[in-house]
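Q: Given only this backbone (346 positions), what sequence would you predict?
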């Protein structure tokens, strides 16, 4: 974890209470399936904080962050954040985590401090003061599903973790595949942390499909991809994921099949706004691998800062109303265009 004076210890924040600084609760998973994306998310968040402070802070207040472990159970994550909010120790909340945690944090923050969720989400309504900057399932999947079905890949299976986001992905994917003229031959949901890659691969082999849509997350997705890479299905079944970023690809050592697709923004190489270059310059050759969750946290902090400058933090409204974000990078693997390109390596 980067060592930075911009990080205020959790217990110090509780004791200090309200501060002259603009303090943000940075809700990142320290453990669990998405814990592998935390180092880059923290590094990108600190880069954003430095940029904001170099530009004068948040209405003249120096921005600092206090870490909240959003890799706990939803209730545990909500209790940890709630202590900070109750003490008046934080002015905003940003972060990425699974959507079951997100839904538990919503009522803790709503009406008290703005909260920007920086990951793909399940859609639907949000409580007041909650902002979303990630895509919903339709935005992620509509174009990739149409492209692949039009290419003749008509028979699909759906594999995900068993919580609110993959459940929503499966509902939307079933609709999109049918609308495109394909068919979903099987669907399964597995509890977080309990993925048996070999068993899932055997199940896929038994139902004979052209494509498997993966809404497994983090290490669960990595477990599946490792098992798949050593199976007889490699080269026969296309994989598409709405949660695979460069960090997840690095976890499995890359992929040379040409048949693994990511319905995510991609940051290999530099981006149109120079974000990847700034990140590399700040943290050096040993920087944690950059990915979409890290970029989301960077954008979320800039969103909060921009909202405060533009019209106060009330400008952050449920699901809409965020100020314009920095230009997004070009994508090698994209969700909202027809140029879906297979993932090769990091």
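A: Predicted residues:
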């Amino acid at each position: 974890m980067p060592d930075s004076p911009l990080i205020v210890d959790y217990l110090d924040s509780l004791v200090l209470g309200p501060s002259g600084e603009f303090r943000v609760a940075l809700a990142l998973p320290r453990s669990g399936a998405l814990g592998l994306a935390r180092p880059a998310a923290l590094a990108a968040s600190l880069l954003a904080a430095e940029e904001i402070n170099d530009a004068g802070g948040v209405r003249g207040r120096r921005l600092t962050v206090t870490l909240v472990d959003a890799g706990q159970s939803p209730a545990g994550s909500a209790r940890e954040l709630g202590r900070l909010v109750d003490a008046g120790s934080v002015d905003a909340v940003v972060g990425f985590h699974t959507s079951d945690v997100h839904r538990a944090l919503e009522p803790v923050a709503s009406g008290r401090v703005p909260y920007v969720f920086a990951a793909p989400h399940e859609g639907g309504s949000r409580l007041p003061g909650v902002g979303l900057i990630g895509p919903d399932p339709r935005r992620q999947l509509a174009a990739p599903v149409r492209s692949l079905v039009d290419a003749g890949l008509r028979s699909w299976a759906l594999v995900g973790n068993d919580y609110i986001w993959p459940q929503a992905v499966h509902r939307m994917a079933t609709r999109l595949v049918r609308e495109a003229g394909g068919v979903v031959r099987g669907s399964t949901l597995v509890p977080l942390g309990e993925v048996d890659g070999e068993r899932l691969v055997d199940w896929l082999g038994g139902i004979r499909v052209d494509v498997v849509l993966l809404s497994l997350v983090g290490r669960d997705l990595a477990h599946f991809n490792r098992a798949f890479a050593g199976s007889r299905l490699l080269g026969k079944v296309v994989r598409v994921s709405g949660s695979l970023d460069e960090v997840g690809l690095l976890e499995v050592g890359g992929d040379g099949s040409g048949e693994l697709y990511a319905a995510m923004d991609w940051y290999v190489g530099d981006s149109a706004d120079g974000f990847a270059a700034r990140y590399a310059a700040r943290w050096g050759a040993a920087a944690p691998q950059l990915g979409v969750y890290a970029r989301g946290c960077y954008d979320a902090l800039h969103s909060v800062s921009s909202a405060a400058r533009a019209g106060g933090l009330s400008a952050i409204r449920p699901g809409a109303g965020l100020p314009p974000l920095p230009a997004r990078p070009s994508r090698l693997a994209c969700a909202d265009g027809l140029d879906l390109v297979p993932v090769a390596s990091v």
